[in-house]
């Protein structure tokens, strides 16, 4: 088995000490940092995304895999100029106003970061004006809204309206998710997409940005 395949396996198995040691060994052996990321760490995380979506992996396992991926990335970052760091796109994300649930959103963030997206996570209880401000400041391709309460999901519509009022709606795609959210709700409020889980959110953003 090649070192790249072994590194992918370590990520899939959430073995972060192993992933850290093998990443270091591969650096010491002179492997190209971008190849270590793309053919080792990301290759493993892609498998995790597929398995999670299929219900073959669960939240704690995905979190361990994301940790394994990031321990490797931390070692590689100093070796890669910012401009060369692979980025799949920029996404501003947050849990909407009045809502403090962030476990699912964090999972979305971890999976998307592992897939190479640059994520600006605003946190929880984010009002529409703060999303608008972040879009102006960061110019993301996508804005991700998470809600876990039937009462707070209405704030997603307010956020989309606020983007329209500021003339920003056409410059950014809006992706929404969270337990009470559905495709029909996304259609109703004029969002660009709905994702049921972290792996689907990653896939959807890839599609939207491509
Ligand atoms: Co809350 N809570 N909670 N809670 N809580 C729920 C959501 C609830 C369903 C429990 C219940 O009654 N059965 C219920 C909501 C009912 C409703 O609105 N219909 C509820 C309630 C009522 C409340 C309070 C009002 C309780 C109270 O105080 N009376 C209160 C509200 C606080 C507030 O937000 N203002 C409250 C508080 C809390 C805690 C703080 C104690 C805690 C949150 C801790 C935290 O997040 N840091 C909490 C928790 C943990 C839950 C449950 C038990 C678990 C949520 C969770 O983390 N799931 C939840 C019941 C349940 O779901 N079984 C419940 C695991 C997580 C991985 O899944 O978040 O669905 P999930 O994320 C998934 C997908 O939805 C999707 O991907 C994720 C990963 O696959 N996804 C996205 C999420 N965001 C996405 C964004 C995307 C795309 C996909 O694109 C941008």
From TrEMBL:
Keyword Flavoprotein: no
B12-binding domain sequence ranges: 88-210
Keywords: Cobalt, Metal-binding
Annotated B12-binding N-terminal domain residues: 1-88
Alphabetical list of Pfam families matching this protein: B12-binding, B12-binding_2
Record-linked PANTHER family: METHIONINE SYNTHASE
Family: Belongs to the methylamine corrinoid protein family.
Protein name (Swiss-Prot/TrEMBL): Corrinoid protein
Species this chain originates from: Desulfosporosinus nitroreducens
């Amino acid at each position: 088995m090649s070192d790249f395949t072994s590194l992918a396996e370590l990520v899939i198995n959430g073995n972060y000490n192993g992933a850290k040691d093998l990443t270091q060994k591969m650096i010491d052996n002179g492997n190209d940092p971008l190849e270590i990321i793309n053919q080792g760490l990301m290759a493993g995380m892609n498998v995790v995304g597929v398995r999670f979506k299929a219900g073959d992996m669960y939240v704690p396992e995905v979190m361990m895999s994301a940790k394994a991926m990031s321990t490797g990335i931390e070692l590689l970052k100093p070796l890669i100029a910012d401009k060369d760091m692979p980025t799949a796109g920029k996404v501003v994300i947050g849990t909407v106003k009045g809502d403090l649930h962030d476990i699912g959103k964090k999972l979305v963030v971890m999976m998307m970061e592992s897939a190479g997206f640059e994520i600006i996570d605003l946190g929880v209880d984010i009002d529409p004006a703060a999303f608008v401000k972040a879009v102006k400041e960061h110019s993301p391709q996508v804005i991700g809204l998470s809600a876990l309460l039937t009462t707070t999901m209405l704030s997603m519509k307010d956020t989309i309206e606020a983007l329209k009022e500021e003339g920003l709606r056409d410059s950014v795609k809006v992706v929404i998710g969270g337990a009470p959210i559905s495709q029909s709700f996304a259609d109703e409020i004029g969002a660009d997409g709905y994702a049921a889980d972290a792996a689907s959110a990653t896939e959807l953003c890839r599609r939207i940005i491509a």
